[in-house]
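[#protein-structures] MJ: dropping Histidine ammonia-lyase here for a structure pass
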Amino acid sequence: MHTVVVGTSGTTAQDVIAVARGNARVELSAEALAALASAREIVDALAARPEPVYGVSTGFGALATRHIGHELRAQLQRNIVRSHAAGMGPRVEREVVRALMFLRLKTVASGHTGVRPEVAQTMADVLNAGITPVVHEYGSLGCSGDLAPLSHCALTLMGEGDAEGPDGAVRPAGELLAAHGIAPVELREKEGLALLNGTDGMLGMLIMALADLDRLYTSADITAALTLEALLGTPKVLAPELHAIRPHPGQAASAANMRAVLDGSELTGHFQEEEAPRVQDAYSVRCAPQVAGAGRDTLAHARTVAERELAAAVDNPVVLPDGAGGGRVESNGNFHGAPVAYVLDFLAIAAADLGSIAERRTDRLLDKNRSHGLPPFLADDAGVDSGLMIAQYTQAALVGELKRLAVPASADSIPSSAMQEDHVSLGWSAARKLRTVVANLGRVVAVELYAATRAIELRHGLAPAPASRAAIEALRAAGVQGPGPDRFLAPDLAAAEVFVREGGLVEAVERVTGPLA
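AK: finished. structure tokens for Histidine ammonia-lyase:
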């Protein structure tokens, strides 16, 4: 099994996905263990002093004015975990919780949190055992980080609350730890706070969304090319020199992808051979690289933000070693989720627009007045058969939902903690809705694929591009049927969705074109 080593200098998106989705094992490096021990010495020294230190010998949030004596500090750390594990609603997906746990371990191992090495090791042991805390949908304001979700994870480390075992069954966390030979942790000064004060949930969801959207944007370039081909459109608008004079990198990449898919097609270029010749194709076809390209550039910006967060140590307060064996603990605002929340919302806006233009292309394929010779709704016997009429209704409903979910969560803020925490990011909410956006975008692209491949097969006498033919053959091999009389459509659409989501479309086309952007 693949192993991810956690050091002191951050991690990579690939490591996060390997742990979250691939169940990779996690190990702490010797460097990380040394940094943990060093930072803990600083916390212990400060804890022995009479002066109050936030997170070490005080209450939290609006209760930070109370100094806590030595005899109550272990109880203080237990209590913050128990009281903050206040989530409600449906369970969050296993992959999200594993990303959340791994990213918190990454920050803990940085040497800036003051957590003991044995606590960090228990975090790794829980991940490696396949134990997944039960985390709920609601409870995070994205500031001070993802408090409630991380608290539910910390509760599992203490052997309390519920968790899912590697067999998928939910049991008391203490039973699961015992079954895997893991001793519950007994938290000391600062450790409870350090385990729950970070942007790890929203960052984990951002990283996974970026991976999924990479595949979907390439898939959308392919379906746009297939639609252009089915509509007998012109590929001249994809010429490199046209995109060079508006030098957005994403636009050039999308145009190049479409050119590669269409290479060798006999269907393209017939747009001026009709009774009423088209001078140019409609915007949804002609401007496909501009819209998808803008989304690609949005992905690039979001990836930069994610990489910066992956290199960060997000906690409050943080331990700052002085290089001479000492150091200090300082309060800060690095837990605020605004940088991540903004790009999560930005991605939802871009994805909604990509879904919108894909739906417009699908509708054009189905309208006999705009499809340039295709049968109404791509039906076998129009009137007796309805063809793909309601598939487009479903796609339109999904696009309507995409537009609703494009409303930014990060534009809102709800004060909390008796107005001490008076501005929050709502980044967790942005991340949760982005996951729905990504899933729905995959469905929208699948409907366009379903319509475009059927339309190409209805263009008798003209051969599609080799890459298009490869896409059609792979889709049919995946159980999605071609043209014919009306049938139960939902299974075909579901199979097309899986084909797109799991990368089957990109894989089939790249066997002909080589790697696409």
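MJ: nice. Residues 162 and 172 are 4 Å apart (CA to CA).
AK: one more thing. DSSP finds 19 helices and nine strands in the chain.
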